[in-house]
Structures are given as C-alpha cells and as structure tokens.
Task: inverse folding
C-alpha cells in the first residue's frame, strides 16, 4: 500500500500488523559494569566509534560531579577501559570543551587501530586533539569536529558556540557566539575540516539554508546533529530554529553542494544511515503519525515505515553490522523511569528487549543520562551509559551475541 503526501511516496508497512509477532524478552542478558565510582563515567552519543577495531578498548570520559551545567573551568578526563585487564581504566588526556549529552565528540578515528580524537578548548578557540594511544603522540587540529568520514581523513563541524547558546547540553561553554544578535548569519554554519592538514572552510552557511528551506518562522537558526554517510560522500544535518522546534533534516555532499531537504515535518529527532542511500529517522508523518521511518536520500523520495508498531518510542537508533538488526532505546518511562534498550529484527519483524535500566528523577533535562546504546565493531556487544547501579552514571556492557547470531 502506498501513500502520497507533499510529493513523498510512503510505503505503508505499518498496515500489515497481522504479520508481526509480539515483542519478546531475552532472558539471562546481564549488564556488566565497565566502570565504577566514586567518579562518574560515560561516553555520550550513540553514533560514534567507542570501541577499537579489535574490540579490546572502550573509550569513556570521567568527571567528579553531576546534576549541574559544566562551567568553562570544568575539565573532563579522557580514558579507555581495557577489557582484557579486568576493565582497567587508562587515562589518556583531558578536555575543556564538553557537554553532558555528546561529551567532547570522543571517538576512535575511523580506519585507525591506535588513534582516537576529541574536542578541546585552547585559549579562545575550540580545537580537536588526535592521540595515538600506543605511542602517546598527540597533535592538534585547530578546529573542532562533529562527525568524521569513514576513511578518517575529513570531518564536518558545526558552530559549538552557537549550539551552546541555543540548546545547552549539546554545545561547549567558555566561548560566546559572536553572531548571537543575528538570526541567520552568513559566517556561521557547517565547516569542512581536513584532519591531515588542519585546513577548515565554511561550506554551508545558516543564511543559505534559511533561504533554501523558505521558512517563514521567526527566531535564531542553528545546525546540529551532523553524521557522515557510510561511503563518505554525503552527510546529514539538522536545521533548527529556537532550541529544538521546527527541525528540518537535510543532506549535502561533503563540499556543501547538492543540498537535499529530506524531512520537512519539523519533528525530526534521532537518525542513522542504513546505507549510502537511506536514512532511518524518528519523526512525525502527517498521515501515519510518530514513528521510525526509512527515508530515501532524495528530495521527494520514498519513505517507508519501520518497526510495524513495535518501535513506538523515540530512541537512539543504530544498525548493527549487516543491517538485519536495529539497536535502540527509550527515554525514561513516565511511571517507572525505566529506560528500555532493545533490538529490532528487520527480517522477522520482531522486537527483543535486552534490558531495562532505572534512571533516578534527578537525571533530567540538560544533565539527564540517556543510555545511548553503542555496538562494538563486531556487533556482539552493546555498551550503554546508565545511573541504574546507584553510583552515578557509569558504563555497562551487554553481550548480545547469542541473540544476533540466531538464524
């Protein structure tokens, strides 16, 4: 069955609910603590490489306080857990450019077995540190990064000064937005950063996209949530006005050309690339309501419902290697404040619960602790952030190999 709305063809898989099995619970899955108090540890967002290619080291951040906004003087420690040595914490560096939701963009550098990178503040500038964890040799790229290409050579970045003023918890404190009095400045937007040479240039301005989307909304514009596609030729970005309202999802080529408006509903939230031509995203469709939809990377392209009524909550979604399984979670339930982490089998159209984790009431707003589930490169393990253990936010690992290896 097909639906057509606003020039978009929608494939209505949600209409075949009779073929969907009831959500299943997977017994015996345990969340093993990777870190412990008295200090607090977490990784941040769900779309970064947290584990090294050999699945031995798990990156994380360490801080000695919670439940308040970071100040320009607050430093977060950078480290990694060695899974082969009793989860030993190895300190690697520090950052003064971080936030509760996405940390400092800490991640393993794609295509590298030994290099990691993260953002930091150096005087009056945000920068990116690239560290070889084996030799401990570090170099500095004079610009921060948001998302890195699959080959590890290029990054795209937004203006973290503006993000911090528009939506605390996602930008960095310490530097103010020089364009705070402009709704859509021509000199702020998305930048392309060469991680080898350190060269950086503005490729998409806020002024350009404000005109391109023909919005009549008043307010301050900004970009966030950038993600490079699996082939490295295109990236996603969200265009937002005043906080998180009126959100539009767009894609562009890595040089800023060929901008495509993918979701103009105003309600786009979390997303992930399925492949180089399709994007899974939580949003609201005017006919089918809220849910996960698979968008073709094309203006006016097809949109397919995903989950058939089982993935009914906004969550942080990731495709496991191979594309059969989707990993996602939920925000705290209204009564229990449990955060659900689950897998969705695309082939058999069934949901498998892999854990419920209680989030105490003080974890809310800017300093909430979303689980942000991340999978290991081999797809056998899931790592989450959670305060359910009673010793603040810590990192936990769940072995899902027996679930995903079933025929």
Result:
């Amino acid at each position: 069955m097909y639906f057509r709305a606003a020039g978009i063809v929608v494939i209505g898989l949600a209409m075949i609910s009779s073929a969907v099995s009831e959500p299943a619970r997977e017994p015996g899955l345990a969340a093993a603590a990777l870190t412990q108090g008295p200090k607090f540890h977490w990784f941040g967002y769900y779309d970064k490489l947290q584990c090294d290619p050999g699945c031995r080291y798990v990156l994380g951040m360490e801080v000695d306080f919670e439940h308040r906004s970071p100040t320009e003087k607050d430093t977060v420690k950078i480290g990694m857990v060695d899974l082969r040595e009793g989860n030993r914490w190895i300190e690697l560096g520090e950052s003064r450019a971080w936030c509760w939701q996405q940390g400092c963009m800490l991640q393993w550098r794609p295509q590298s077995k030994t290099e990691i990178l993260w953002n930091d503040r150096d005087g009056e500038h945000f920068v990116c540190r690239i560290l070889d964890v084996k030799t401990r040799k570090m170099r500095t790229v004079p610009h921060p990064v948001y998302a890195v290409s699959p080959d590890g050579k290029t990054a795209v970045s937004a203006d973290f000064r503006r993000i911090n003023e528009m939506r605390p918890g996602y930008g960095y404190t310490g530097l103010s937005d020089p364009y705070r009095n402009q709704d859509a400045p021509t000199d702020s937007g998305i930048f392309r950063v060469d991680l080898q040479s350190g060269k950086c240039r503005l490729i998409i301005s806020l002024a350009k996209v404000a005109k391109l989307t023909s919005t009549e909304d008043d307010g301050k514009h900004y970009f966030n949530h950038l993600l490079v596609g699996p082939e490295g030729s295109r990236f996603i970005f969200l265009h937002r006005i005043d906080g998180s309202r009126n959100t539009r999802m767009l894609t562009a080529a890595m040089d800023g050309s060929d901008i495509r408006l993918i979701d103009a509903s105003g309600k786009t939230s979390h997303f992930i690339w399925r492949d180089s031509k399709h994007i899974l995203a939580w949003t609201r469709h005017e006919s089918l309501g809220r849910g996960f939809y698979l968008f073709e990377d094309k203006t006016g392209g097809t949109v397919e419902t995903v989950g058939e009524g089982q993935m009914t909550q906004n969550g942080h979604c990731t495709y496991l290697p191979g594309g059969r399984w989707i990993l996602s979670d939920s925000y705290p339930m209204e009564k229990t404040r449990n955060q659900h982490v689950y897998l969705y089998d695309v082939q058999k159209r069934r949901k498998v619960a892999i854990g419920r984790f209680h989030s105490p009431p003080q974890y809310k707003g800017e300093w909430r602790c979303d689980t942000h589930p991340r999978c290991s490169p081999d797809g056998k393990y899931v790592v989450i952030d959670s305060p359910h253990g009673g010793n603040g936010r810590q990192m936990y690992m769940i072995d899902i190999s027996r679930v995903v290896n079933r025929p």
Notes: The mean pLDDT is 92. The CA atoms of residues 19 and 163 lie 43 Å apart.
